[in-house]
Amino acid sequence: MMRVLQINAVYPNGSTGANTRGIHDYLTSRGAESYVAAFQFRVPPEPNFYRIGTPLGRKLHSFRQRLTGYQAHGSAAATRALCRRIEQISPDVVHLQNVHSHFLNLPILLRHIARRQTALCLTLHDCWFYTGGCVHYAQSGCAKWKTGCGGCPKGYYGIKSWFFDRSAETARERRALFAGIEKLGVIGVSDWVLNEAKESYVFKGHPTVRWRRIYNWVDGQTFRPVDAAGLRAKLGIPEGGKMILGVSSPWNARKGLNLFLNLAPLLDAGERIVLVGPPPKTELPSGIAAVGRIADPAELARYYSAADVFVHGSKEETFGKVTAESLFCGTPAAVYDATGNSELVTPETGALIPPDADPARILAILRGLAARPKPTRPCRADAQARFSPSRSLPAHLDFYAELISAAPGRE
To answer: What is the pLDDT of residue 193?
Structure first.
């Protein structure tokens, strides 16, 4: 019987927490022994869940990181306790999801996994595993992750340090730690992030690493086209008007807030931008309605369904789950032709925005999408074909089996 331990910062909520839960439930349904370890203190008791560390330990870890510049070097006691739990479980595969949240000592954990000769799987939800510590670098135009980092152009690398740039040391350490894992599997949530990782200083030249692209997935039963005529009226969208939707948490410049701020003055009277997510910390011009965070996925599906076009304004995405959710609800999407965004839409289901396009050109692209008959069926069909649980979850199980069969010492 296969035994899998997933480690993630959160569980079961949040984007990566929901992914972890989805894999856990699927493995259990397939007869595997599935375990989850996370830093999460509001979780109903589950027999196969292990809580890592304490709130105080996390604060001390965060302080240490800012003081010394070393990422994922705190939480030594909590990580050694996790290693003891690993010995009890004796997993065939340890799967690291998102672990850069001040709760895990990566060197201690990876050295323990290397000694056990356990198969290790990483999911690249961002770029952190293969850089000197930054989670995204596309907008800065940095390519130092290919040669070993150092002299970070951002002035920090993902999470601020008060005094030190340790990005070069971090990259060297990660290269050495991952080289010690004989059977290493790397999952990219897009072709873009997977191909970037292959060219990185951290992973390039690793003799046995196995690569797999597995897209993130969306629950197509929850995210589906629904009647939202009443919602459009409530939002003040006139008959024949157009609704442009954006969804993010949080709203800031990196997530594309400036795109909507620049579009607002150009809108016609019948056009309206609706933003879902925590209210931006800036005054919004007329033409933009911020409706706040929507916790209920079914209610969020109503907003996707109500929109004429969905816009994802970030230029740094390894996947872009909100785009996939919109497609499942039958609403075409416009995304920047950059990073993982480009893989999510087709000419039939949306449009690519040139990264250097000015607001007038972007609005013309949106109006072009909104003017044509809404491609509800093509959007949903394409999303189901590529981003459904029935494709992505079995792919994880197959990849685990591949890693296990190749792991040294496997009986």
So the answer is: 98
pTM for the predicted model, two decimal places: 0.94
Q: Are residues 324 and 396 in the same domain?
A: no
| Distance of alpha carbon 260 from the chain centroid | 22
223 in a structural domain: no
Number of domains in the chain: 2
Residues 276 and 205 in one domain: no
Same domain for 293 and 205: no
> Any alpha helices (H) in 252-307, and if so which ranges?
257-263, 297-306
How far is residue 214's CA from residue 340's CA, in Å, rounded to a whole number?
Answer: 12
* Phi/psi of residue 289, nearest 5 degrees: -115, 120
Q: How far apart, in whole angstroms, are the C-alpha atoms of residue 209 and residue 174?
A: 14
CA 316 centroid distance within chain = 11
Q: Are residues 334 and 359 in the same domain?
A: yes
Q: Identify whether the C-beta of residue 170 lies closer than 8 Å to the C-beta of residue 133.
A: yes
| Residue pair 313/291 in contact by the 8 Å Cβ criterion | no
The CB density around residue 218, as the number of other CB atoms within 10 Å, is 24
Each residue of 174-225: pLDDT tens digit? Answer: 999 999 999 999 999 999 999 999 999 999 999 889 999 999 999 999 999 9
